[in-house]
Amino acid sequence: MRFNYRSYFKSHHPQTLASLKSILNSFFFLLSKVNPMDGNPPPDDPPPFDPLEPSNPVSYPLKTLEELESRSYFNSFHFPFNKASVKLPPYAANELPKRPRLLVCHDMAGGYLDDKWIQGGNNPDAYAIWHWYLIDVFVYFSHSLVTLPPPCWTNTAHKHGVKVLGTFIMEWDEGKLLANKLLSSQKSAQMYAEQLSELAAALGFDGWLVNMEVSLDVEQISNLKEFVSHLTQSMHSLVPGSLVIWYDSVTIDGNLSWQDQLNAKNKPFFDISDGIFVNYTWRENYPKHSAEVAGDRKFDVYMGIDVFGRNTYGGGQWTTNLALDVIKMDNVSAAIFAPGWVYETKQLPDFQTAQNRWWELVERSWDISQNYPQTLPFYSNFDQGHGYQVSVDGKQISQTPWNNISSQSFQPFLEFSGKSTGGHLKVVVDIKEPSYNGGGNLTFNGTLDDDFQFSARLFEGKLQLADSPLNFTYSVKSNGNSLLGLSLEFTSAIREQRSVLLASGDSLLTMGHFVRHFDNVIMPHRVTKAETEPSWVIQESSIAMEGYMLTKIHAVCYKLRPEVHKKVGQGKTVPFSPSEYHAVLGHLAINSCTLNSDFPPSTSWLVDGNFTKWSSSASHGSKKLNVKLVWKLKDGKTHLFPKYYIYVTKQPVLSIAETNGSLPLVQEFLGVAEVEAFYVSDLLVPSGTSSVKFIIQVCSLDGAFQKLEESPSLDLNIQGS
Ligand SMILES: *[C@@H]1O[C@H](CO)[C@@H](O)[C@H](O)[C@H]1NC(C)=O
Ligand SMILES: *[C@@H]1O[C@H](CO)[C@@H](O)[C@H](O)[C@H]1NC(C)=O
Ligand SMILES: *[C@@H]1O[C@H](CO)[C@@H](O)[C@H](O)[C@H]1NC(C)=O
Ligand SMILES: *[C@@H]1O[C@H](CO)[C@@H](O)[C@H](O)[C@H]1NC(C)=O
Ligand SMILES: *[C@@H]1O[C@H](CO)[C@@H](O)[C@H](O)[C@H]1NC(C)=O
Ligand SMILES: *[C@@H]1O[C@H](CO)[C@@H](O)[C@H](O)[C@H]1NC(C)=O
Ligand SMILES: *[C@@H]1O[C@H](CO)[C@@H](O)[C@H](O)[C@H]1NC(C)=O
Ligand SMILES: *[C@@H]1O[C@H](CO)[C@@H](O)[C@H](O)[C@H]1NC(C)=O
Ligand SMILES: CC(=O)N[C@H]1CO[C@H](CO)[C@@H](O)[C@@H]1O
């Protein structure tokens, strides 16, 4: 569902960001009445949304203060599904670092689109962000009173060390009425602040952006200050390291008057919160002034930049870096608003390329904010959270297009244009073709000189090594003589650097070739092929670097036995000519050699079906099944596993089973759960089925999967058969 709203923007000169977006929203709202869920699970003429009724789990905002006050959200069928399952890693759970930070405010076409489907949707081209390593704080924004971030965003942001905020907004005449209620007494202000904190803590996100775009009577300001300070304090006490950020809007004298800087009119709110998001129409010297006003809290000033470029310094869009440069020079923080511009305005040539090119602008002006790996186990399969197929250990288990950014793996720090002279290699995360695990792979394709090695940045970490060696495992699929190794950079406490190549292939020539480039070249100690898909080669290497820190991981592309091509034409050396190179990196796992994933046996799990509902379907005697699967370890431990893959098998009635002999049952893949619950909706069960068996395949932090036959499961007999 797309329409051209740019001309609309131009002709109406909307005054505020909010008005612009709310006009947009009402368009989407109107359109959504025509076609409720374009590109998403089929609507079947949906009845009005009743949060108490079981249905495909969704994320949704709160629209009234009554909902907030009554705490009715906690009774919703959808509430347990909305809990983020990934916590911030310990190194990112404290206060933000004391340096300029990058806050990114999502605001994608009104929000709650493909991302509202908690168990994923079927749009392989759904919006996603994957440059998490450049971001410190992510705000999920919509124009509803209480915007709760869909858990998929919180999960992937947390995985990468990024904090996530929801939005509390009051705007327009309606907002004014709400504000009157909110601020009617000190008690009321405190009560709503506590409800907001409770929601954030229960859903697992890290605080709020407070956007009071209304003008108030000056008498209301003291209760507003009470609201902001109480929210900040209650957030901090429930979620240490959490943030409440004030948006530069209503001033201390009650006027709705954006200051575009930190000054005496908005500083009282800054003083009682964790920072201010400054309106994006500032001038060149405002960041500097704001820094002076903020004193030792200058990094808590986030200068707004509108990527759509509406009166924003530097023009946003493809010159967003101009504003970033000024902000960086003045040593304050930046708040990028609506980077979804790249997606919404369909920048050429395609979303993947345009998005990478746009974030490259950011990286040019700004430092890397997140370093990973920092802890073990570390695992990435380069999944971007959308795609056309899903694989497990090289075997394709689904060929249905899908999206759910919850399943994003650690995203590589790919540079937009590789610096290469000896040929031309394109490195992309490809989501269209078979992968090793998940739905993406990292493809290195193009031409490469025989004597040349091409290096592409994968990760920049801070992994402190102890006495036990590191175990590197990675899968590669490659053509001809294309080889792919990993180069590692280690730094000691006294800043001594060591470079190590984990080489591929088994030839000693490789050693000879690389010895002068690296301090150490390590051959894999085990090379195996994937059981079901032998074109994937799995290399295992181990390395001991006690006392060092692993800081860089690059992929190194090279050719096998360059000497073969060297001497053509009677002893004369001819110039090397670039030839084709093609390799795919399927996954990378780093673990300590002493750690190994053991799964609890299936008998230690309790699996249950809840809200089971059978209905008849249109075709001959088959039925439809809805059921909420829930599972937990009998010992009550939770959060040991990052995700679960859900499958179903349909057991035929005895007579058919006998006729068909011992045909293996087909395991149909249903989806992925990140919480210990999965809602199966409208599963078709053909006649002649006696029972269905749901299998919950457990996946560990290091990316290992429990064997299907050893996974917990639940049998359901067919009702009435
Ligand atoms: C601040 O932002 C609003 C939109 O949110 C805009 O209309 C206004 O022009 C900006 N600047 C000033 C100085 O008000
Ligand atoms: C995301 O959810 C959808 C729908 O449940 C599912 O089809 C898809 O496979 C899930 N993602 C992955 C990586 O499996
Ligand atoms: C508030 O806004 C009104 C109307 O724009 C203006 O007359 C008044 O001076 C403003 N008050 C302050 C304290 O700036
Ligand atoms: C930025 O501020 C920090 C802390 O006040 C200071 O140490 C640093 O030198 C400043 N950097 C620049 C470029 O001014
Ligand atoms: C790989 O690169 C070559 C050009 O060097 C191109 O012809 C080919 O289509 C590319 N293959 C893929 C899968 O991108
Ligand atoms: C290294 O990790 C792989 C899987 O990630 C595992 O199969 C292997 O046993 C480990 N090797 C050692 C020596 O720990
Ligand atoms: C769902 O499960 C809960 C606890 O597991 C139980 O209390 C409740 O009765 C069940 N509801 C239905 C409709 O089966
Ligand atoms: C039994 O086998 C027949 C033919 O191979 C197939 O069409 C049918 O679907 C099978 N029935 C079941 C329940 O698997
Ligand atoms: C395993 C594998 O081959 N994966 C795919 C990765 O993406 C590239 C896209 O160019 C495909 O060609 C590969 O087939």
Automatic annotation (TrEMBL):
One of its GO terms (molecular function) is mannosyl-glycoprotein endo-beta-N-acetylglucosaminidase activity. Residues 598-718 form the Cytosolic endo-beta-N-acetylglucosaminidase C-terminal domain. It is found in: Cytoplasm, Cytosol. GO terms for cellular component: cytosol. CDD domains: GH85_ENGase (cd06547). Residues 112-389 form the Cytosolic endo-beta-N-acetylglucosaminidase TIM barrel domain. Pfam families: Glyco_hydro_85 (PF03644), Ig_ENGASE1_C (PF25529). One of its GO terms (biological process) is N-glycan processing. Its EC number is 3.2.1.96. Gene3D superfamilies: Galactose-binding domain-like (2.60.120.260), Glycosidases (3.20.20.80). InterPro entries: ENGase (IPR032979), ENGase_C (IPR057882), TIM_ENGase (IPR005201). Keywords: Cytoplasm, Glycosidase, Hydrolase. It catalyses: an N(4)-(oligosaccharide-(1->3)-[oligosaccharide-(1->6)]-beta-D-Man-(1->4)-beta-D-GlcNAc-(1->4)-alpha-D-GlcNAc)-L-asparaginyl-[protein] + H2O = an oligosaccharide-(1->3)-[oligosaccharide-(1->6)]-beta-D-Man-(1->4)-D-GlcNAc + N(4)-(N-acetyl-beta-D-glucosaminyl)-L-asparaginyl-[protein]. Belongs to the glycosyl hydrolase 85 family. PANTHER family: CYTOSOLIC ENDO-BETA-N-ACETYLGLUCOSAMINIDASE (PTHR13246:SF1), ENDO BETA N-ACETYLGLUCOSAMINIDASE (PTHR13246). Endoglycosidase that releases N-glycans from glycoproteins by cleaving the beta-1,4-glycosidic bond in the N,N'-diacetylchitobiose core. Involved in the production of high-mannose type N-glycans during plant development and fruit maturation. This is mannosyl-glycoprotein endo-beta-N-acetylglucosaminidase.
